[in-house]
Design goal:
The chain contains 11 helices and 4 strands. The chain is mostly helical. The protein has one domain.
Length: 274
């Protein structure tokens, strides 16, 4: 069913593009609504119960995914080329859950950007490209939350969430690869691939912005021309951070840690197209 929808969208690229644009707008504009809904449910159930319920839902989804993979293996439909990507991504998602996740509900990022990856795949025609070309929206989404929606609550640019977005997209994209989806533009030369140009340009631009002090890691690094401080919290010496409001313990990626991890994951995802 999923593969059928992908092949249909591949033949109707205008419809595909419209769906991508509508879904991107939904991800940005509906965020406030979902946050309010999440807070309402949390206040109704209590934080502890809410976290357990969400953790249970995540575990159930994980078991369904694993069960689907097992059925595929039994039917001898598995594309081994993608098994490593799927397994590694699943492992990293589990690691993210225990190390980088502030609240369990944030794992909805993985689902939402996994769906974006599925929508981008027939448009882009490559597996890794579908993951990496979701990055502009991932970055814009976090900037929108950090600067526009919750400037007095969100104290750091959520690089943790962008890592989660990438992992969610990678999981579903490698999943359809295992199911037998084909890359229509796999053999396009590397220098002609939009995702490669985007990643290289974004990396260079980030380095230039940080060098010029337009973008700085912490408030203490600010200059007269600083536009964005990535982390308003003091630089933490301890690995773990305890959230002052909800009491959760997690690691906040330092700006350089986050950027290197994001670039590394993106490059790894591009390996799905070789």
């Amino acid at each position: 069913m999923i593969l059928g929808a992908i092949y249909w969208l591949e033949k109707h690229r205008i419809v595909n593009l419209i769906l991508v644009c509508v879904y991107a707008a939904f991800l940005l504009l509906a965020h406030d609504i979902f946050v309010d809904l999440s807070v309402m449910i949390m206040n109704t159930l209590s934080l502890a119960i809410y976290e357990r319920v969400v953790a249970g839902a995540i575990a159930l989804l994980g078991m369904l995914l694993v069960g689907t993979v097992v059925r595929v293996v039994r039917n001898e439909q598995l594309e081994l080329r993608f098994a490593g990507f799927f397994g590694a991504t699943l492992f990293l998602l589990v690691a993210h859950f225990f190390v980088l996740t502030e609240m369990n509900i944030e794992f909805i990022h993985a689902i939402m950007y996994g769906v974006l990856g599925l929508l981008l795949f027939p448009l882009v025609g490559r597996f890794g490209g579908a993951v990496v070309l979701g990055l502009p929206l991932m970055l814009l989404d976090e900037w929108y939350q950090y600067v526009i929606l919750f400037p007095h609550y969100v104290m750091h640019f959520e690089l943790n969430d962008i890592v989660l977005d990438l992992l969610g997209a990678s999981l579903l994209i490698s999943g359809i690869g295992m199911l037998g989806a084909k890359s229509s533009l796999k053999h396009q030369p590397i220098y002609m691939r939009l995702e490669v140009w985007f990643l290289a340009t974004a990396s260079f631009a980030t380095a230039a912005l940080m060098y010029s002090c337009f973008l700085v890691p912490y408030s203490i690094d600010s200059c007269e021309n600083t536009w964005l401080v990535l982390n308003k919290l003091p630089e933490l010496r301890e690995f773990w951070y305890v959230h002052p409001t909800i009491g959760s313990t997690f690691h906040i990626l330092k700006p350089m840690e986050g950027f290197l991890l994001i670039v590394g994951l993106s490059i790894a995802c591009l390996g799905m197209d070789f």
